Amino acid sequence: MTKKVKWGVLGAASIARRRVVPAMLQCEVAEVAAVASRSLTKAQEFATEFGIAKAYGSYEELLADPEIEVIYNPLPNHLHVEWSIRAASRGKHVLCEKPISRTVAEARRLLRARDEYGVKIGEAFMVRTHPQWLRTQALIQAGRIGKLRSVMGFFSYFNVEPENVRNSMEYAGGALLDIGCYPIKISRFIFEDEPRRVFACIERDPSFKTDRLTSAILEFSNGQSVFTASTQLTYYQRMQFFGTQGRLEVEIPFNAPTDKPCRLVLDDGSNLYEGGSQTVETVPICNQFTFQADLFSKAVRGEGEVPNPMEDAVANMAVIEAVFRSAETGKWEQPERV
Questions:
Q1: pLDDT, tens digit, for every residue of 114-150?
Q2: Which of 117, 128, 181, 255 has the most CB atoms lying inside 10 A of its own CB?
Q3: What is the pTM of this model?
Q4: Does CATH place domain 5-127+290-306 in 3.30.310.50?
């Protein structure tokens, strides 16, 4: 049996407490062995809550722990690259939350750090490891909807709290970086291609200055992807894939449930009004964050590859950056080639 990989959690972020660490308690290969916070009390409370052996009152102390092999970095977006590079410089492998950076230039710095320090670094796009997305990819590759030509995505929630980091320009908040990155990632994954150009429209919050409503078109060589992301609309998410002979819908694409099966809807379009043409596939109950940590841990042990390597993270950031640029210029923009 593979020896468990010891992980340290950098900060006590909400996503770590609500989703990632509880999921990692079910891992076969990953073990959360330490947590750090700028407040020792917070770190100790976090450690007690999840039965973690060590708690540190500074990030530096965690990085200095020789037993820790992997750092999970869920810090606010503007701190992703800085602290991931610091971790790599101490010989730690890093799984960093999405978006990996604020710019392509930052992402390239992290890519160079990975190579310089000889560690593994991945972007925590947990959706990439979920069986519903592996099944979606397989169905489309098998021609179940004919030739894929169009992707439509939507991801939104409502949050107008001034103190929330997602509403801070300083902390690199806003809809595109927080959630718009998901339909971009999935579109690239399913098309198995990079968009040639993008066009976007952004509406910014008058107080926060963050993008609160962002829509974009991504033009691929074999089709198009259109998506909307918002931080000030009702909570909703959906991804649909349209082909020459059918449609595939992923019911809950990003925040997949952990207490019930996921559903994929296949529709051949022959019965528009009564739904008789639809078939539903279910994907068994699972936790994508558990898969993510175990797969990364296996990569650390030399068993498989990092699910979302830095090369892919740089490419995804190049599309995000082009979307921002298009909204400013009002023109089609080409993502930087990586």
A1: 999 999 999 999 999 999 999 999 999 999 999 999 9
A2: 181
A3: 0.96
A4: no
